[in-house]
Amino acid sequence: MEPMVPISAALPGGVTEIGLGYLPGSTTPARPHDWRSGSLLLDPDVLLSVSYWSGQAEIIHRGAPARRKTVAGLTGPRGVARCAEGLAVVAQPEIGRLTRIDGDGRIHGHLDLPGISPWFACQWRDRWLVSDDTRKAVLLVSADGRTADRLPAPFALRSVRSCVPVDDSHYLLCDRESQSVVVVSLTGEVVWQYGRSNHPSSEEGCLTSPEHAIPLPSGVVIADTRNHRVLFVDWNGKLVWSLGGVGRVGSGPGRLWHPTSVSAHGSLILITDTGNDRILEADLDGRVTAVHGDSRVEAGVFHLPRSLEATPAGYLVADSYNNRVTSFGADGRDVVHTASALGRKLFWPRNASVIDGSTVVSDSRNGRLLLSPGQDADTWQELRLSLAGRPVGLIDPHAVRKSGPGWLVTDTGLNAVLLFDPRTGEVLHAWCGERTGAALGSGEVTLLPLDDVHDAVIDDERTVWFANTGHDRLCALPYGESRLRNITPRRAAGTESPFISPRSVDLVGGQLLVTDSGNHRVVRLTPSGAVTGVYGRRRGHAVDSLSDPRLARVGPSGDVISIADYLNDRVLLVPLAALREDGDKVGSAAS
Asked: Which InterPro entries match (predicted)?
């Protein structure tokens, strides 16, 4: 049977949906399930889980599952761990807070940690061991939260997800972007490691964006999140068992969808199967013995797509998780998957676009830019960049676009935006974070307070606009100036509606188009910040809803935008007319 990409045109608002999307069962509810982010047992019969989107904790009695209690009042909870007195401590990075809850759902107090974004926290050596995803550090925080000491890092940490004590002098660290789990001493020495950076997940011993890991006497249990599996690895580095895995995405027996947390309680392992909004109980051999909740999720055509571009022949999609770039006709036929180039498999392509008739791919985890002279050509070449005569080693390239006097590429590993001449690869100018500028050496380099910058564009006035993701801001650097200006969205009523993790920026008719990923919307606004249109009614699967959109671009016609609706596993074509102008009726927070 000829492969085909499903395309649904003429949906409400004139929207076109490409790909089946992320569908619970056979129907698409207006409101999706919640996003469980952690679970544990407080005693043999009481299970506690926390959910990110709703900001709630749920108490479940294992012997009587109908006996459930909901605890409100949390904000974006992530990790949960047991602490003293039989309590659970819930980490809330968005507000810098730890909250303690008992098995009856009573809150026993909050500990605010100014300037810290705790993704996970647990007690260790009379202090709190905290993974701080903003500082990219592991901290030892005093019991009262007043002092925090940064532990020596074993390498350059990029996305610190969890840290769990192993013994009195070692802890288990899970750094998502390094694709590894390591045991680290208090002096920063790595004494055990599993996973290798920038290797395809199909290779033995590799992980993809692991979110959590816990030590057991005989080995380590790892939530290998974007491989949709949980692994048990012994202390010799041997894989003992795997539950779920690549090609086994879903909710059926032996399948997981985006597991983000694991915890152990004697001979019982709890798995937070986040994408399926459920909790699995498993034994020490990886056999599932009980399930709490079931959303019956099935996979679509794309998986975590990062970009969509209309081409003269149809469409081009960067299908990140599937490690390929897919082109297909306007009717969904003539599907061509590109999974390798120059003798090497693609690894997490974050962007695919057509510039001046050539197909350009950001092969991110391989740290390279690829160019093919035509959309369907089989001939590839690598774009190699240099600055002041020195090679520039890309680490994690994202979007590539034609902008200003050359092409722009954003590299989150370098925390930099590079403007280069595509004919020679010479970098004409670089804007980079203050801490990473030394990596680029001398030359046309501007140091700025950038953090995890994901995208940039240059307008006709030569102002550079940055999606300054790590600082939750849209920033402008007017030509000839040296200081960034922060732009905060304002609704029609004048109230502010701040960004959360803005990941892309584009120009549209003298205004800006920003992908506000954490708020699950795409925002059009004036250069001064006045919101003139919003797409994304709320987080969800419905046509007028989005779930963590990653990229929005204005098409060649100027009246349609393409949206990579990341967690919905689909891409959309949305008329600009579908953006709502009643901005003060659109919730800015995830709902």
From this structure: 6-blade_b-propeller_TolB-like, NHL_repeat, TRIM-NHL_E3_ligases
Q: Are strands 278-282 and 7-11 parallel, antiparallel or unpaired?
A: unpaired
| 3-state SS class at 86 | helix
For 390-416, the three-class secondary structure string (H helix, E strand, C coil) is: EEECCCCEEEEEEECCEEEEEECCCCE
Taking only the tens place, the pLDDT of each residue in 248-265 is 777 788 889 889 999 999
CATH node for 1-33+493-591? 2.40.10.500
Confidence at residue 25, expressed as pLDDT on a 0 to 100 scale: 41
User: Hey, which residues does 181 pair with through a beta bridge?
Assistant: 174, 194
Angle of CA points 230, 236, 242, to nearest 5°: 20
Quote the pLDDT of residue 590.
28
Tell me how crowded residue 504 is: count the other CB atoms within 10 A of its CB.
30
Q: What is the dihedral of CA 568, 570, 571, 577, to 10 degrees?
A: -60
For all residues of the chain together, what is the average pLDDT? 89
What percent of the chain stands above pLDDT 90? 65
Rounded CA-CA distance 92/213 in Å is 19
In angstroms, the CA 521 to CA 518 distance is 8
Q: What angle do CA 99, 121, 257 make, to 5 degrees?
A: 95
* 519 Rama sector, left if φ>0, alpha if ψ -120 to 50, beta otherwise: alpha
Whole-angstrom distance, CA of residue 49 vs CA of residue 115: 26
Q: Residue for token digits 């996970």? A: 120
Which residues, at least 6 apart from 585, have a Cβ–Cβ distance to it below 8 Å? Answer: none
N residues, the chain: 591
H, E, C per residue of 260-295: EEEEEECCEEEEEEHHHCEEEEECCCCCEEEEECCC
Amino acid letter at 391?
A: P
What single-letter amino acid sits at 586? V
pLDDT at 1: 59
- β-pair type (212-216, 80-83): unpaired
Site of tokens 């120059």: 342
Contact indicator for 361, 352 with CB cutoff of 8 Å: yes
CB atoms within 10 A of CB 123: 15
pLDDT above 60: residue 377: no
CA distance 574 to 587: 20
First to last CA, the chain: 41
Beta-carbon count within 10 A of 408 CB: 21
Q: What number of other Cβ atoms are within 10 A of residue 508's Cβ?
A: 18
Give me the mean pLDDT over the 304-322 stretch.
Answer: 90
Structure tokens given for 369: 């830019």
pLDDT of 299 strictly over 60: no
Q: Do the beta carbons of residue 112 and residue 126 sit within 8 Å?
A: no
Query: Among the residues of 17-105, which ranges form H helices?
Result: none
Q: Is 583 helix (H, G, I), strand (E, B) or coil?
A: helix
From CA 442, how far away is CA 536, in angstroms rounded?
43
CA 582 to chain centre: 29
**Nearest alpha-carbon partner for 32 in 540, 589, 556:** 540
Q: What is the pTM of this model?
A: 0.75
